[in-house]
Amino acid sequence: MLVTDEKELLEQLNSEQYKEQAFRVLLKLYKERLYWHIRNIVKSHDDTDDVLQNTFIKIYNNIGKFKGDSQLFSWIYRIATNESLTFINKRAKRLQVTSEELQNTVINNLTSDVYFEGEAIQIKLQKAIATLPEKQQLVFNMKYFEDIKYKDMSEILETSEGALKASYHIAVKKIEAYLTNN
């Protein structure tokens, strides 16, 4: 099965005959990119794997509800983002801490994560990012690490491009201040 464009992939995903094959194509197209998108939010490799699996289950079960109002890419990223934030909030609630406290704990544990290959400066950058409000964290990670265009980010986060640009600019200033002062 050869998929030539998003429209054809969607048609096959909504077809009983080709759904399984088309989903394997979708997995191949998005698995690595979504892994890193989720990893930037939840930080831990093991948690990322869990959230990624939940994301693909949700995509598989809900592909028929995709209306085509946005790009498939944006819809998939929105699901991954929401799954990541839900994961963090549920874990924080279960541990009876704030999501910020949970993120700081996870960042402090990054050095013991065998899948984290960062150096001290990367840990410091992650700590700086963790000081940002949730929306600024998302915008910064999507722009800085994933180089997602503001237009696409606007669809994913359902926010105007202008607001996203402002959030990114403010986030960069806060991160620069944190890195200078710590």
UniProtKB/TrEMBL annotation:
GO molecular function, one term: DNA binding
Residue ranges of domain RNA polymerase sigma factor 70 region 4 type in the record: 124-175
Any one Pfam family match given in the protein's UniProt record, by short name: Sigma70_r4_2
Top-rank taxon: Bacteria
Descriptive protein name: RNA polymerase sigma factor
GO cellular component labels: DNA-directed RNA polymerase complex
UniProt keyword annotations, A-Z: DNA-binding, DNA-directed RNA polymerase, Sigma factor, Transcription, Transcription regulation
Chain ranges of the RNA polymerase sigma-70 region domain: 27-93
GO biological process: DNA-templated transcription initiation
NCBIfam families: sigma70-ECF
Similarity field: Belongs to the sigma-70 factor family. ECF subfamily.
